[in-house]
Design goal:
Helix content is 54%, strand content 0%. It contains 3 helices and no strands. It is elongated and about 50 Å long. It starts with 12 loop residues before the first helix and ends with a helix.
Length: 59
């Protein structure tokens, strides 16, 4: 359940864990990260070999 101010109201400890786990997965897998040059972790992990080698050369 989401309150009017956009915050979650948890009905139980289990409910809180589910909501937090969903948020954590979204944050860690789907959102762009500045530390990955604006890529999502999935995009970073699946970039081409050429891109990986080019990035190493720029270190």
């Amino acid at each position: 359940m989401i309150a009017q101010d956009g915050k979650h109201l948890f009905t139980s400890y289990r409910h809180a864990r589910e909501i937090i786990e969903d948020w954590r997965n979204d944050y860690n897998l789907n959102r762009p990260h500045t530390s990955l040059d604006g890529l999502t972790p999935y995009e970073f992990a699946t970039r081409s070999r050429e891109d990986q080698n080019m990035n190493r050369a720029n270190l």
